[in-house]
Amino acid sequence: MRAVVQRVSQARVRVDDEVVGAIDSPGLLILLGVAHTDTVEIATALAIKIWQLRILDGELSCADVQAPILVVSQFTLYADTRKGRRPSWSKAAPASAGEPLVDAFVEALSELGAQVETGRFGAMMDVEMVNHGPMTILLDLDE
Questions:
Q1: Which residues make beta-bridge pairs with 127?
Q2: Is 14:21 a contact under the CB 8 Å cutoff?
Q3: Catalytic amino acids?
Q4: Which of 15, 60, 73, 74 has a C-alpha 20 to 30 A away from that of 137?
Q5: What CATH architecture does domain 2-140 belong to?
């Protein structure tokens, strides 16, 4: 499982000009990719890692200040561009496996106490954010 974690002052995701998820205060935007080999246990471990990651102002975590989190699924994080000019998506989990694991990740964050907003799995989304810092971290829990 891969996550691009961005510290933001605000973020929103739109589908067909409708805002489907938004945070309007300092928090995190997480772009989340799921691989074939991922499990609920990996999703839970990543959620805990991000919840406790001390990257907010003052070296605080979301757990410390109950900062909101916007999660957007993004299979393109598993693009393989080693050959040719056309990316391969062969490492990304198919929707039937990926969507339940994105849901498990969101559920794990919620169970930790996070206020979680989401995009819409599989939809064409427009993601807007103000990266605060800037602070962007790539987390990869692939085996």
A1: 13
A2: no
A3: 74-76
A4: 15
A5: 3-Layer(bba) Sandwich (3.50)
